[in-house]
Amino acid sequence: MSARARVGVFGGSGFYSFLEDVNQVEVDTPYGPPSAPLAIGRIGDIDVAFLPRHGLDHGLPPHMINYRANVWALKDAGVERVIGPCAAGSLKPEVEPGHFVVSDQLVDRTNARKDTFYDGPLTTHVSFADPYCPELRSLAIDTARREGITVHERGTVVTIQGPRFSTRAESKWFQDAGWEVINMTQYPEAYLSRELEMCYVNVALITDYDVGLEGQSGAVSHEEVLKVFEANNEKLRNLLFSLVPRIPEQRSCPCASALTGARVSDEH
Hints:
Blueprint: E1 7-11, E2 23-25, E3 38-43, E4 46-52, H1 67-76, E5 81-90, E6 100-101, E7 105-109, H2 134-146, E8 151-152, E9 156-160, H3 168-176, E10 181-183, H4 186-195, E11 199-209, H5 222-231, H6 233-243
Parallel strand pairs: 1-4, 1-5, 5-11, 6-8, 7-9, 9-10
Antiparallel strand pairs: 2-3, 3-4, 5-10, 6-11
Helix pairs in contact: 1-4
């Protein structure tokens, strides 16, 4: 691959349209094609690779995304830092539509997704106790505040399989567990990034209250989700364009050494 980038962004198909002089790069990975070609451009002095996780025409539902190919494509382009903005539902009244959440924890409720690069014979156990890069989280929170965005500086995101939304009983279960955010794509995207020793930060744009939230009886609709997302798309764009130039070239977080001590040696 000739085009290189240090920062990668997973997101909707419209994000890269904000960049000028985008270079579309086709990527071949050991896991098949990613959701779309990489769109590589610049924000300030930083080369950035954008990849719409659902494809250019949003034709890939969450359970059909080739997460391994997507993450591998960014790594192959030289990416060390990944920003993963996403639309998400709220599980708490105080986390309102239009607010942003910089998640600090993740719960996986998906099934049968290809969620590791290490299928053997070299057994690899990567720590995921703290799913998100602490350095990028701190920067994202501070940048959101500078931009005047209402941001929650922590929150647990529960990732469901999709493409269906939750039942009321499921939603109440998640709320009773004390979680804040519900989404369909954070896992295994965040974990696969950790396996390749890339930093990953989630910025969740709250588009709706989940169906079981007390006092919010209406069912979630995809139309309403898109309406709120589009209304706040400019805020997300401003956040990304302010955040990327602030990311230091040298990493001071543990993400770059995630594989240290993670592999089971032959003598064991």
